[in-house]
Amino acid sequence: MSKTRVVITGLGATTPLGGDVSSTWEGLLAGRSGAQRLTDEWVQNLAVQIAAPAAVEPTEVIERVKARRLDRNAQFAVVAAREAWADSGLEDSGLDKERLGVAVASGIGGLHTTLANYDALLQNPRRVSPLAIPMLMPNSSAAYVSLEFGAKAGVHTPVSACASGNEAIALGLDQIRLGRADVVLAGGTEGAIMALPLAAFGMMQALSKRNDEPEKASRPWDVDRDGFLLGEGAGILVLESYEHAKARGAKIYAELAGAGISADGHDIAQPDPTGSGARRAMERALAEGDLTPADIFHINAHATSTPQGDIAESLAIRQALGKEADHAIATAPKSMIGHLLGAAGAVESIATVLALQNRVSPPTINVDKLDDQIELDVATEQRKLPDGDIAALNNSFGFGGHNAAIAFKTV
Amino acid sequence: MASTEEIRSSLAEIVNEIAGIPVEDVQLDKSFTDDLDVDSLSMVEVVVAAEEKFDVKIPDDEVKNLKTVGDAVAFIERAQNG
Predict the structure, then answer these.
(1) Which residues of A touch B (CB under 8 A)?
(2) How does pLDDT run across A290-335, given as a tens digit for each residue?
(3) Can you give the residue ranges of the Carrier domain (chain B) (predicted)?
(4) Among A182, A256, A298, A383, which is least packed, fewest CB within 10 Å?
(5) Spatial CA neighbour of B13 closest among B60, B49, B40, B59
């Protein structure tokens, strides 16, 4: 049975580099860091005082009354989804909304709402908002995206920590290939730059403590990396069956060729040091996309800037692609935007799609001295990608041992 | 003691803050649900905000009787005088 072809027909993002896709992409190409030293009062006692906040506050974009009913998490998702929807041209296409699905992931969910309402509860239980549950539930962002556009096919929220965004794209791909939808708004969102996550990730020794040099903190593959930088924002992609897109004359960015999902089965927080789980995810994405390692010219790595994780992924890429890894350019957007947790896979899938479309790999910043255990062709400046039919991988891995790799190809 | 108009005006600000309804639309004869499109969860928020603003108790059982802005203003007036 031949697989339904699925293509990308719309993109939307709000990130530490910009409030939309074009400003984010320009920032990535320019090697700009979104990192900052935080100055909020709540950060003063924390060991880690740096992060990559969203460049544009979502409350400046969303109508006031609507914004107050949305957790920050859902605000980012709605902003990105509106851009993707407008970009796709679906509004006036006569799309049957019963064929429109949603898959919007989050790693942590509506934590702002949870914490604010817990504070209110301690003062007076009647101050707890009647909207607290619909705002804090993990599926809130996906639900609000579906309400925004009247989506009436399945509305889903995969939760797999930092693999969530890619898993949402994989789930969206499945929905179309299973014939359950013609179009799926898929991606991820996260708004977790708050004291609790910074303290908790900090206690795990997962975060960079480079407080005095925030822009140097996220340095995937560099020998002096010391952990990740927490970012926030959202990315949404419009996934559409090729037939549906073709019939309405849609603009097509790239083809979503395949997805590969695996689990490490190793540890709740540490990556499998052999990289075998990550390798299987990439191999499965290639197989599902009818691709071979020879087709891969660009790898958007998970590369969070943690000492162990970056090495395990490098091993995995070498195992998955073999000798063909030599012609695959590796890049790490987290060096600039930080780690957007449940949104990371989605925002970086957008970067991957744009890399294929524009035939350019964005740089990885802060690689002053490449760790000699990293056997990848790392883009430290913009690198041109070859003409012709080429493909790319985007990796995301999450606490819990979740691995999700997505394969895109040029159309 | 606040006048009827003062209570209506303060309540209108609360309804505007929570539901985005223009303050001038929040008149005594208007139904919260039918005219002002205030949904049930927003109505709970309005009630709690009004309790704090006017220093009164509005029991949950009473909320269903507050169909119009005038009903709410009258309840608040009675509660303040009581």
Answers:
(1) 63-65, 68, 126-127, 129-131, 134
(2) 999 999 999 999 999 999 999 999 999 999 999 999 999 999 999 9
(3) 2-80
(4) A383
(5) B49
ipTM: 0.87
Please report which residue ranges of A89-163 form alpha helices under DSSP H: 111-123, 132-136, 140-149
Average pLDDT over residues A342-358: 98
Query: B62 in contact with A at a CB cutoff of 8 Å?
Result: no
Q: Cβ B45–A129 below 8 Å, yes or no?
A: yes
Arch. (CATH architecture) of A7-247: 3-Layer(aba) Sandwich (3.40)
Who's near B8: CB < 8 A, 6+ residues apart? Answer: B26, B27, B28, B69, B73
| Residues of A marked as catalytic | 162
For residues A4-18, give the mean pLDDT.
98
Q: Do A131 and B41 touch (CB under 8 A)?
A: yes
What residues form DSSP beta bridges with B3?
A: none
Q: Confirm or reject CATH 3.40.47.10 for domain A259-409, answering yes or no.
A: yes
Q: CA-CA distance, A163 to A405, in Å (whole number)?
A: 9
For A130, nearest residue in chain B (alpha carbons): B41
Report the C-alpha gap between A401 and A269 in whole angstroms: 7
- φ, ψ at A216 (rounded to 5°): -100, 0
Are the C-beta atoms of A406 and A169 separated by less than 8 Å?
yes
CATH 3.40.47.10 region(s) of chain A? 7-247, 259-409
Total-model pTM: 0.96
Round to whole Å and give the CA distance between A155 and A184: 9
> What are the beta bridge partners of residue A298?
A329, A392
The residue type of B45 is E
